């Protein structure tokens, strides 16, 4: 077994600690991943030392040039961080041994696959310590709690079991499943930030829809994302072929596939994605930059695309109504009037409860509230390109000035996932025309001469007040917006054009 850590700086760190202590222990996920052959690209490490974790960590940090942070002086826990220009930060948590022995320390952990240690003396190769059967569980591809009390001791481990199962492609042990279901209600009392972070990690796995479905199947979803759980069994009319919950999972899958293609992490793997590659290829580089842009530490537009897909229809259970279907005699049509606004309000409350930043919440709610707009634009311009005026209004209305074009771009990407999820076929009906319209909106967003966020007005408020003896107020604001829309639509291109149009508008709107 190759016990080398990646990146090599972690090997250097372990070597430095070996000189500090007679014996140190590498524990947790990195050991699991080394045994699975998944050692490449680790950026965090957990160490256990027999004594003086804080002092040892400080001395090693000073020697190697890592940053040092005392996390918990009472429990003797420190963190070391090394920041590079070309990769994510390297993080090492160093803790004093719990229970008086490494065996007792491992028995206090969550799951057997995380409860193994590599023991290092001052010299020689490490030895594996496995007191819970974690190595056998790795071979069996099984997630199993270390003791019957492991989940009761920390309810967040319930969510972590789901994350590990999806992340590793493992099954959860039946007794662990039973315990998860019995204790799911205790998540109501868990710290909001900790719940948020575990949910974030679940949705950051390679199959976020499966993670949500596991939470649903084990009765956990209702305690952490009750608005999503409520969509179960809410039926929809044609052309939808699934209830709102299953449609949501499909939208999450399509959003994930779209994000992976944009970021260059997977090729187009479906006919629908292949068509996206052809139609939206010219905007891929700019979309990649957009998705990589951070909204908060460790959370990007690309991450939020998955969350937007998950939350986009949570208003439907509260707005569902039935009426006769005029196009299909004898059948009932289900409608969800106003579900965008209701969904945005529900998302605001849930994301606020999970302690997301106000900036993130406002962007997500703007996207959820606007997610039907691309569909409506497509229907309105079914046989023709979307007009510049309509595109301008779209980006102006989705998110407004605080987000520039970013909220509108996120909304277009969500709409692409949502549209695919409506239909079972790939590509869905009318896909080429829908992509043409999506491409037109993106072209407008990335055009510095037209898009609202980049548009430089031909006349500003001071000029209008000077030329027309206007006072600050709503009328001046209306005139400015009228001129900006005309400029974006291509109706005016010079200051003279703007003055003439302003003169006509003022004459027409005088009371």
Lay out the secondary structure.
Layout: H1 8-20, E1 23-27, H2 29-35, E2 44-49, H3 53-64, E3 67-72, E4 77-82, E5 90-96, H4 102-107, E6 116-121, E7 127-130, H5 134-140, E8 142-143, H6 150-153, H7 156-168, E9 171-172, H8 174-183, H9 192-203, H10 208-217, H11 221-224, H12 226-229, H13 244-262, H14 271-280, H15 284-292, E10 294-296, E11 299-300, H16 301-311, H17 316-319, E12 321-324, E13 332-335, H18 339-353, H19 358-369, H20 373-380, H21 388-397, H22 406-422, H23 431-445, H24 461-468, H25 474-489, H26 495-508
Helix pairs in contact: 1-3, 7-9, 7-10, 10-13, 13-16, 13-22, 14-23, 16-22, 18-19, 19-22, 20-23, 21-23, 21-25, 22-23
